[in-house]
Every structure is written in structure tokens, then in C-alpha cells.
């Protein structure tokens, strides 16, 4: 069945060309106020999306748009044209091949069903005998590759109409009722665009009776899971957001189908839908879309509208959660702009629909940041030095930090706010900590490496290399190191200066496991109680 889109009258606030997190792109639709109701992301360059009429007129359309250059250029088109047929969703596998589920705004007929294009949407071919006729309703379609796909509709003949294909849609087989575990209740049906495929073989769709139908074998067998949602009129499972096949959220709009909708009812599972618990949220939760960041440990995005709360009131916007969907924070991008259907395939690749002004103005937002907390990290090949020596640091921090704060215990200068600090000079004997704090739009993180810099009065060249022996060299799995004095630390450093293995000891004999190292030449630094020895080793 067709899912009703809330807040369908286009709303525009004052916007600009780009923000720290989002970039406005032009969907190319010539008709004004085209919104986006579904997005299929193939990769960071190839994306397909379907449109809906956001003018307030409520027209049914079957228009789509696509990009093959990351959204720099979007090319629109339509499947059949006119205002009789609408699109449930779209599934693409590359820049030229895609499938859509097509329904009639009134009585379903033999024109409805699944359509395929192999020429970038110039022409569409009706797939044979799948989700057609007055008793069917084409909700969603999905393909994992050029051959294997599935499509589902509403209940037909007493059980959900689900089809699979292994030849790209040339022929389809309906999944028998015996392969769908779960009892259909009176009036039960699915929703257009309420579908997710996750991982290599898992897919799922929601029903208006609060159930989630899950398959782990590309649509051939299904099991219905009761989510805990108590269905309201036009409600049920209206949002699906799984970060992996076991962990995810489902949600129902608080007041489905009304303009007073303010938030979501969210339920959570960590065992693939076997058990569920209701999520009590805090922060700003928007109701048009609940999207997962696939592959994360629990990052979710909400987009759309929320008219509740206390000032400042964000009527429209976009928010994110890093804690599994409990706590939500506002993105700083577009104040009071209505984000629509949103999709991420990883923490740095995502799009969110909006309404266009014209073919060259607005319509979709591209995420241009990293939706993850920053991670502070660094390294130096100069951790073992003598009096007056200098240490150079390489910043290895991840997830686009915007500011940096270094602290160098015992060093000069003692701090820096540069991404790459200047060379740090150490003039006193001892072991010194190094601290790095990083900040981004999505949080902060601090790393402290205790006793990271070792300053010794005896130089590397002042220790006789004969004071230690090591074998075998070349190294296969282990290297044995013997010394006449106690060995304090051993570091293995690759040719670009990265410390790939570091262990501390207090003994004259050491056996170092090298099985995790790639083949190649390394520098071996052995810190002794009276100095440092530096040797080359070869790992086979």
C-alpha cells in the first residue's frame, strides 16, 4: 500500500550553497516542488532517487533522477509519465540498470508491477507476471546484482505477495505461503518505501500491523517478527533502520497521517528482531525519515519535522545519534529546512531529499563530512632520542577533526594547535607523555600516550652493536634478542616511519612475535637500560 508522506507542502527557509556538513545539489526536475521519497545509493558516485509532488496538489507521479558523478549532475526522467501511476521505490545496481515498483493511484491493474531499465532510464520494460492485476499492490523491489532480486506487495490470497528472480527479472517465482512464517492479520499490508536490504543477503519490510518481515536468504524464506509497536490508524512499522543484520531500529509516527506529528515511537533490537525494547529518546527527533549509517556501531539519522519541544524550536531539520538511537543532536547545517528521505551507505556517503525550486535550484543535499566522532591518534619514528634531540610527529587522527590541541610534556614548545606540530626539542633526561585532543562538529576525543618519548644521555651510536645479538634475520615468525644488559623496550618501525610493533620488557632475553607483520625491511630499535641499539631486519 502507498505510504502517506507527511508535510508534503514544500517549505523553504533562507539557505546558502553549502555548509560544513551538507552541499545543496540540483535534482534537475523541471516542475517546482518535487520532493524525494526514496534514494538508492550504489556507491559514492552513482545514486538514483524517486520524486513526489510536494506542491500540496497531491499529484501521483512516477519521476526519478540519477547521478553518476557524485551529484554534480543529476539527470531526471519518468517511467511512464502522467499522473496515474506512482513509484513505491527504486533499486539500482549501477549507473544504467535499475528497477522500480509501480502502483496505480486508484485501482491496481495489469500495468502495475516491476519495471526495469538498462539504458539509464531512457526506456523501461515491464517485468512479466509479477505484482500485476487488481488484487496486487507493488510496494518495493530490490536487486543484489544483475540477476538476483526480489519484490513484494501487499497481502494477496491470504498471504504476502513476494516474488524472487535469478535472471534479472526475465522470470519470477512467487514465494509460497509455507516459506513465510507468521500469520497475517485482518487488514494487514506493507508500505511503499518502507524496506531495507542490509548485508549480503538480508532484507526486510514493515507492515501496518507493527510487524517486520525478515529474510536472510535474498527473499526466498521469511519470518514475521512482532516489534512491540501498537499500530495506530495508518501506522505500524513506517521506518526501518538497521546498521547490520542483527542491530537496528523500527519506528511508527506518533500521530500518523496528521499535521500534528511531532516525533517517533522507536523500538530497538540487537538479535535480528527476535526481541525488541522501546527506546526513550532525548534531543531532537524528526519524523520524515529514520536512517541508519550502515556499518556503524549505532549511528542513526532522523530528518523532517518536529513541532514540539521548548525554544529554540527546530520545526524542520536533521539530527543524529551515536548511541544506538537514544540521544539525538542537531546537525548545524540548515536551520529550519525540511529534510526528506535520507540514506547513508557509510559514515561519509549519504544524501537527503529536499524540495526543488527549479531544474537548476535545489532538490537534494549531499553529505560532505564524516558522521562519526573524531578519533585522536598520532605517531613518531623519533620516540627514542638523546639530549637536545628533536621529535617529529605525524597526525593520524580520523573523521575530519577541525581543531587540534597538542601537549608535549618536557618538550619545547610545550604545546601546539597545529594539525602537524613543529619539531619538538627535548633537553632533559626522562620519559615523557604526549597528549592530543581533537574536536569536530560531532564531538571531541583525547589520546594520551604515556612515556612515549624516551630521552637518554647516551646516543644511538655510542652503544656497541655487539652488546646485543638477534636471530634469525631474515625473520619468519619470531626473532630472539639477547643483551648483556636489560632490554627495556623493542620497537619495529616500517620504512615510512610508522611504529608497527612495540613491546616493553625488563629482561636480557626477548622473543618477539612477528607473525602479524607484512614481508619487508624494518628498523628494529632496542632500548636498553644504558642506551639504544638500532638495527635493520628483514621479515619474510
Structural topology:
Blueprint: E1 22-26, E2 34-41, E3 47-53, E4 63-67, E5 75-78, E6 85-92, E7 98-104, E8 113-117, E9 125-126, E10 138-143, E11 149-155, E12 160-165, E13 173-174, E14 180-181, E15 190-198, E16 202-207, E17 211-215, E18 222-226, E19 239-242, E20 248-253, E21 264-269, E22 277-279, E23 282-283, E24 289-292, E25 300-305, E26 316-321, E27 327-330, E28 342-346, E29 349-353, E30 363-367, E31 378-379, E32 384-386, E33 390-391, E34 394-395, E35 403-408, E36 411-412, E37 415-416, E38 424-426, E39 430-440, E40 443-456, E41 468-471, E42 478-493, E43 499-513, E44 520-528, E45 531-539
Parallel strand pairs: 14-18, 23-27, 32-40
Antiparallel strand pairs: 1-30, 2-3, 3-4, 4-5, 6-7, 7-8, 8-9, 10-11, 11-12, 12-13, 15-16, 16-17, 17-18, 19-20, 20-21, 21-22, 24-25, 25-26, 26-27, 28-29, 29-30, 31-34, 33-38, 35-37, 35-39, 36-38, 39-40, 41-42, 42-43, 42-44, 44-45
